[in-house]
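As a warm-up, study this chain.
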Amino acid sequence: MARRLTPTYHLVEELLTYTSKLIVQESGSNLVAFSGGVDSSLAAALVHQVSSNHERMNARAVLGISPAVPAHQIQLAREVAESIGIPLVEVRTEEEMLEEYVSNTGDACYACKTALYSALEAVTNYVDGEMAGDGDGYVLFNGTNKDDLKDQTRVGLIAAENFNVASPLRHVTKDEVRAAAKYLGLPNWNHAASPCLRSRLAFGVEATQSHLKLIEDSENLVRQALGWENEVTKNMRVRMLSKSRAVIEIDSGEDLEVSRGKIEEFGIPETLRRIGFKGGLAEVRHFKSGSIAAVSSTRSYQDESIIHIETVSGVTDRNDRIVA
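Now compare it with the structure written out below.
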């Protein structure tokens, strides 16, 4: 039976055509900054499918490993890459060595993306040797979509621009990304966004390894309390405010009173204080998707052609009010 040509079919065909114009041909390398999120996964699938049409498959997904990436996200990225069929390279990034990252005062995302894209460039030497090609250059890709480009606070866009990063998704919305990912059979097409752990820290709370590990451990505990160990479609965050205070944010579709009851019954407030949130649990409230509220005083952009690697971040303002 012939496959019905749906609007999503045409969307995917347009994405593949656009991707074919971006990639380096057979003697170069195409590297996708890959997190296992739906945006970078779709970008990886498109780049892989287009490059697979060539005699020498020259695409790789590159996963940056750092304390800001939780273990469950690393495992998901490995599974999604295997599902796509694209070879996965894991590389240690070193953004925690940069003062502007650790201080978390407006330039952390820029510093992180700079470290990531620097690592991707370093990977090109390994990839070129492994592929035994003539080395006709390389292209770095990410999963920036059209909606991302509307956010003027995303200083990570500047890092992507500095490295000439391309995105196959820059002309499509997040909803279209999910539709295309579902059409292509990506297992994470409906997963909730999973930005880096640093995004849970209030403006000015240092992005140290101990703080990031505390966030990861705390979110694992809250998932257990809610019975969400295997839940992938609902949002949940543990934020760290100044004075080591915690805020738990629950998916907006959930009953807050029920969620608070489960959190109390599981002993989460006491446990959070014991493992590092010395200021205790300040609040349990609904999650609101947003982006970085604190904009660097030294970096800004206006050009909507700038590309951005996927991230959804939440920080507080000077009064510790979560604004995203």
